[in-house]
Amino acid sequence: MGTFRTGPDMLSEHEDLIHTDAFNVEVAIDPGANGGFAVSFQGELPYTYRMPRTEGDIHDRIKDITKASVMVGARYRYAYVEEVGGFVGVHQPGSAMFKFGRNYGFLLGALQSLGWHVQLIKPQAWQRALRLPYKRGNSNTEWKNKLKAEAQRRFPSLKVTLQTADALLLLDAARLIASHPNTKEKGKTDGKDT
């Protein structure tokens, strides 16, 4: 796992964007232990990172992304986080679900404490916005591989992994939803109720 580039390398890639009036940084996060981050500066091709293993490393990753956004003069920081509930599709022991909920809450708290505008997006909403077929009939492995294949299709120049595929798709969906202000949570992108 690489580290987030916050030094001269990252800044030189974004020199033309420094000090623009409405520069945005977006991060999409699949909050699971096997999830990841997709980070985009002003709509450019995203950087991807797998989810750090500890709370301290999660905080450091978000802090590094925040620091990079400040260094390039970002005016707005948006975080799109997959909204999760108490059930993840398979039976889990209570201790595992408690740990997942704790990590999810920690992630949201870290984002908010560092000044990110957080938007929670349900998996069904971002998948509908991208017009992805429903998971029904697929095993979890088959479904995850389909999502990875879709992310590879949408981001052919990136190395997409199972850990980062959902974050990339969530980022793409969040942009699509934002570009259609009448979009309902149901993931409709035409602005019409049916």
Walkthrough of the structure:
The chain has 194 residues and is an alpha/beta fold. It contains 6 helices and 5 strands, in the order αβββαβαβααα. Strand 4 (76-82), helix 3 and strand 5 form a beta-alpha-beta unit. The N and C termini lie far apart (44 Å). The model is unreliable at 1-21 and 185-194 (pLDDT under 50).
List the helices and strands and how they pair.
Elements: H1 8-13, E1 24-30, E2 36-41, E3 47-50, H2 55-71, E4 76-82, H3 94-113, E5 117-121, H4 123-129, H5 140-154, H6 165-179
Parallel strand pairs: 1-4, 4-5
Antiparallel strand pairs: 1-2, 2-3
Helix pairs in contact: 2-3, 4-6, 5-6
- In the CATH scheme, the class would be Alpha Beta
N-end to C-end Cα span: 44 Å
Helix-residue proportion: 40-55%
Strand order of the largest sheet: 3-2-1-4-5
Give the strand tally: 5
What is the N-to-C succession of helices and strands? Answer: HEEEHEHEHHH
So what's the oligomer here? single chain
Structural class: alpha/beta
CATH architecture: 2-Layer Sandwich
Q: How large is the radius of gyration?
A: 17 Å
Give unreliable regions as ranges: 1-21, 185-194
Overall morphology = globular
Number of helices: 6
Average pLDDT rating:
81
How many separate domains? 1
Query: What is the name of the CATH superfamily?
Result: Ribonuclease H-like superfamily/Ribonuclease H
Query: Hey, roughly how much beta strand do the residues contain?
Result: 5-15%
- CATH fold label: Nucleotidyltransferase, domain 5
